Amino acid sequence: MKRLRITVEGKSYEVEVEMLDEVYAGSSAPIARSSAPRRPRAAAVAAPSAAAPAAKSAATAAGGDGAVTSPLAAVVVSIDVAVGAAVEVGQKVVTLEAMKMNTVVTAHKAGTVKAILVEAGDGVEEGQALIDLE
Questions:
Q1: Which of 5, 6, 70, 110 could make an SS bond with 124 (beta carbons 3.0 to 4.6 A apart)?
Q2: Which CATH code for domain 58-133?
Q3: In the chain, what are the domain boundaries?
Q4: Which letter, b or e, does each residue of 69-91 get, where b requires 16 or more Cβ atoms within 10 Å of its Cβ?
Q5: Entry pTM
């Protein structure tokens, strides 16, 4: 078994992986594989380590109460408003795509679009500001 640390979208996971071609007996030298049937083992996945928290980028920080934020990690499909446009509560402002499913992001308050903080094709994190409203 080998212990590995894998980072996915900024979150670290510690996993144990069994090498199928060779088996390690606690040392760095491989030993011959037995021909006896083996029971399959599930890989153990630990929760992300508290010692290595994912650092949030400056782009992830919310831009105040006027910020429309991403509800999930996804890719921006379209920006459905322009700077200076008036928006109403519940109006569609951005469309995101994650795992081949689209998610519509709506304005949480009425206002005017002050800034668009992302572009179509950008990857975004959960909680990242997408649009700033006045």
A1: 70
A2: 2.40.50.100
A3: 1-55, 58-133
A4: bbeebbebeebbbeeeeebeeee
A5: 0.54
